[in-house]
Model the fold of this input.
Amino acid sequence: MKKPDTGDMPAESFRQYGHQLIDWIADYFAAIESHPVLPQVHPGDIAGSLPASAPEQGEAMQDILADIERLIMPGMTHWNHPDFFAYFSSSASGPGVLAELLSGAFNINSMVWKAAPAATELEQVVMGWLRQMLGLPEDFFGIIYDGGSASTLHAIAAAREQADADFRAKGLAGMPDKRLRMYISDQAHSSVEKAALVLGLGREGVRTIPVDSAFRMRPDMLQQAINADRSNDWTPFCVVATAGTTSTTSIDPIAETAALCRDENLWLHIDACYGGAAAILPEKRDLFRGWEFSDSIVVNPHKWMFIPIDLSAFYTRKPDILRRAFSLIPEYLRTQEDGEVINQMDYGIQLGRRFRSLKLWFVLRYFGQEGMRARIREHLRLARLFAQWVDEAKDFERLAPVPLSTVCFRYIPDDGLSEEELEARNASLLQRINSERQFFLSHTKVQGKYMLRMAINNLRSEEKHVRAAWQHICKHARATRDT
Ligand SMILES: Cc1ncc(COP(=O)(O)O)c(C=O)c1O
Done:
């Protein structure tokens, strides 16, 4: 087929290769288990197999598609694989993938309403749907950012704006006497501190609060820290509580922290990137009690709601402050409708933004609220089952409560081993588990203890996968004992 003068693909070719690609994806999903979850590559292998420069002449689409199998697949860690139990997995559902395709085709840029009325308004509507599912009140305004790190960065920027409106004009350098401080537990995600670095607060601007025996931030210690800081010329301005910490999925005492923040007039941001999805279950809502009094919340549907990465749902009860922190409108972006619409560029650092709400819309409609609840409930059941197996095994130890769908544990081959010895044994066990590339687990270290993590939040993981993973872990654990 002859290319048009623009050089782009003719419609018929697009149809042909589009069908071919969809067939390839359908087969990929159907046969995902035929691939090992981890690839067998070394650093540099993939780059080394690719040409050093772009081709001078255009290439045939057939060759480009063939190279997916030849050059890309060998370097793929399959996040969609049901045996992916590392980190917090992100799994792409069929409707989510189709929405991604459509979003690419539309290629809208929803910086201002005028440029993308449907995307701007769909985002408001589906963020409202999700808000209701999470049990949050109507005064939470929702906006989508790319990831949890970006959402938290926006929350802290808004908190800084609330702390002193002069920051906007003078910047931190212009206010040397204002020493801002925020508070997180020692289990908070690194993205919070990273946001502090970006926002000029520095690492000294972040104070870490110890946790209790279930790895939850201690409100009494938080109060003490705030009191001490106030009498030492610090200006406390923000607390970030976590609902589902990355290491152990502990949930900070949200209601108590919210009450403290209200009394101290501090912005409360809740990082529920992973855990928030569980709030769509009425029986789990109590874990989040009090989050309706926070100033902002982030939940990542790309973690546990079967939306292809990336999509982070950010909510705030103070959109005007968020807007004050970020809005800067040059003449060329002014429109007639400015007074009556939401222009999304006013609520963040991004100007150009893509049509992410489409995939949330597709997935929520395809699964329905009931379907979403059923899947998340099943993951919670599987985690409880896995925890029970760990508890029943004499040579394993569970190292944290399991409020959500992740289990932290370790192998204890003999009594009397030191922490260092246990770490070495378990690190080598993890290496062995992953080396067969059939299952993928990851680790963490909390209060000096090395732990293996089994995170069960992948759309495709069923009981048979979790059971097989446990057998695989036991087999390797006991083999390390014999070596
Ligand atoms: C609790 C928590 N917060 C924030 C993040 C960062 O999210 P993102 O990767 O979307 O930036 C993670 C990632 O795992 C997380 O577990």
